[in-house]
């Protein structure tokens, strides 16, 4: 039976009258070393939270532009091929002289990942202002960023400046996607997150992020706090317990999780962010001109957006690694 709260349809993806604006994604595109199914060794897979979001957007039929510094080495060329092969627009992804960043991934019994990184002096973090001069050219209706890209110097400051410039023309989407091993003092990270909340329109954060950033506070308390700092929509993902969300105009929602056999949760949060943006894109709710409409989103629409994003994330959890669904995959699961 079709779930009536999920409005994703094949027609919405291929309808020529649907919006064609670009969602730009800024941040790292690195190599994940992931456990192989057998043998106790690692396999190399393209990763990085922003890169995963870009791939998920493209698979859902949204024009996705990746703003990334990708090494011109063996790993970097594999990453670039993966992104381009999934339809991500790579004309603003720079060929960097530094080496590729790497993340080693371990998956726990519950499917949750832990990470160990090799990122000192690598390509992803060396942004200069000139490298982003044309990043917002063309019909960019949204800019998404988060994770290590917004906390790792020297490039973090350059990307934060890009976000400040993008506010005048685009919806700003933000996911803290915390990596405690590398981000330093959580109080400093929280202060930086609060600054971004002042310009962000759409915010996704996980309950795990909040446990590190705001220990002792409930997701409900943080939701109210963060909505009061400026965003139109804040969604707190709760793993298998679903998602808690609210809007600037006072709508509140809690949606259940989607039952799924979890293989691992790598890339699930990134898929949620992408599917939420894809749902807003499909409804014509992205772009600075749509900001008032986004802030006034009604309860039924918010529930539908959350259900779509939760389903997409659940499908990713049912697969090994960051392997987000296509629009066709979502359509098949709704029947």
UniProtKB/TrEMBL annotation:
Coiled-coil regions listed in the entry: none
InterPro entries linked to this entry: Carboh/pur_kinase_PfkB_CS (IPR002173), PfkB_Carbo_kinase (IPR050306), PfkB_dom (IPR011611), Ribo/fructo_kinase (IPR002139), Ribokinase-like (IPR029056)
Keyword Kinase applies: yes
Residue span, Carbohydrate kinase PfkB domain: 24-324
UniProt keyword terms in alphabetical order: ATP-binding, Kinase, Nucleotide-binding, Transferase
Gene3D superfamilies associated with the record: 3.40.1190.20
SUPFAM superfamilies the UniProt entry points to: Ribokinase-like (SSF53613)
Entry GO MF terms: kinase activity
Enzyme class: transferase
Sequence similarity: Belongs to the carbohydrate kinase PfkB family.
PANTHER family: HEXOKINASE FAMILY MEMBER, PSEUDOURIDINE KINASE-RELATED
Name recorded for this polypeptide: Carbohydrate kinase
């Amino acid at each position: 039976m079709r779930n009536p709260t999920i409005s994703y349809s094949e027609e919405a993806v291929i309808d020529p009258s649907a919006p064609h604006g670009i969602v730009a994604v800024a941040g790292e595109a690195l190599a994940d070393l992931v456990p192989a199914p057998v043998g106790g060794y690692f396999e190399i897979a393209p990763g990085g939270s922003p890169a995963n979001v870009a791939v998920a957007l493209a698979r859902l039929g949204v024009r996705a532009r990746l703003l990334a510094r990708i090494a011109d080495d063996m790993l970097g060329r594999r990453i670039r091929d993966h992104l381009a092969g999934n339809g991500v627009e790579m004309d603003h992804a720079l060929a960097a002289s530094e080496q590729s960043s790497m993340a080693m991934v371990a998956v726990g019994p519950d499917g949750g990942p832990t990470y160990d990184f090799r990122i000192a002096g690598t390509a992803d973090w060396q942004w200069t202002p000139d490298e982003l001069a044309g990043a917002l050219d063309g019909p960019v209706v949204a800019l998404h960023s988060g994770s290590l890209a917004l906390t790792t110097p020297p490039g973090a400051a350059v990307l934060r400046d890009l976000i400040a410039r993008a506010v005048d023309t685009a919806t700003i989407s933000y996911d803290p996607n915390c990596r405690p091993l590398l981000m330093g003092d959580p109080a400093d990270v929280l202060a930086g997150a609060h600054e971004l909340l002042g310009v962000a329109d759409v915010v996704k954060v996980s309950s795990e992020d909040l446990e590190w950033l705001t220990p002792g506070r409930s997701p409900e308390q943080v939701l109210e706090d963060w909505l009061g700092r400026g965003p139109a929509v804040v969604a707190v993902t709760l793993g298998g317990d679903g998602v808690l969300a609210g809007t600037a105009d006072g709508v509140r929602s809690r949606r259940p999780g989607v039952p799924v056999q979890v293989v691992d949760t790598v890339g699930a949060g990134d898929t949620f962010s992408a599917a939420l943006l894809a749902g807003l894109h499909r409804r014509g709710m992205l772009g600075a001109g749509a900001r008032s409409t986004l802030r006034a989103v009604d309860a039924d629409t918010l529930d539908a957006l959350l259900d779509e994003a939760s389903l997409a994330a659940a499908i990713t959890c049912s697969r090994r690694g960051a392997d987000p669904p296509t629009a066709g995959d979502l359509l098949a699961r709704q029947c």
